[in-house]
């Protein structure tokens, strides 16, 4: 089935829903951001025809519609990952659906390990670019011209205008905001120390198991993207590297989530409807 047909099937199964101008994808440990949505309307993924369902810890697996800091939003409270057994095209479908629901921009969040030794767990990095080490691309195969062009440009995958607005908000609010490059891997095993050192040596600042395929799909469908990483653990791969646990990752991501909330509180009202 083509991407356009899958999208049409998903759309045909939806009930009447509130208007949307901004979409957000919430990563591991960040689902609590949905608690701030006013007048929330919840739609479990399982009720959308042909839509993948989240199984990862901390991912509720539903769309949340409502008002957030003056914007009409839809939040993916939980995403799907390659390591759950889903295909790249399943991940892209979610982004295509967000665009068809009316979103004019996409804010992607994730929990990521800090390759950069100056980053501390609980801090936030905005993504300026990414490295795709998943080994796959959601656009592989015949292109569906009804969705987007065959060769979408990724030289500005993360929108410079949105980044500038976020930078101004962070400065005005006195929020420490890192800017860096995100390396995306397939998971679910955490990286070896040698892999972490390699990623750092080629310019990456943080590493995680999501986001890059969503951003490729967003470029395909023409959605500007802003990326935010919750630094959840130190991942320098040095001699003092400590083992990581999912419990620590989720706890640190929740701390960073509160910082993200401050940034979104300042940013969202500044965006065009």
Question: Which terms would index this structure?
Answer:
273 residues; Nucleoside_phosphorylase_sf; alpha/beta; Purine_phosphorylase; Rossmann fold; globular
Give me the side-by-side strand order of the main sheet: 5-8-7-6-9
Which residues sit in consecutive blocks of at least 5 with pLDDT less than 50? Answer: none
Q: How far do the termini sit from each other?
A: 34 Å
The best one-word shape is globular
Largest sheet: 5 strands, mixed, barrel
The CATH class label is: Alpha Beta
The helix/strand class is: alpha/beta
Mean pLDDT: 93
Total DSSP helices = 6
Binned, the helix content reads 25-40%
Q: At the fourth CATH level, what is the homologous superfamily?
A: Nucleoside phosphorylase domain
The CATH architecture can be named as 3-Layer(aba) Sandwich
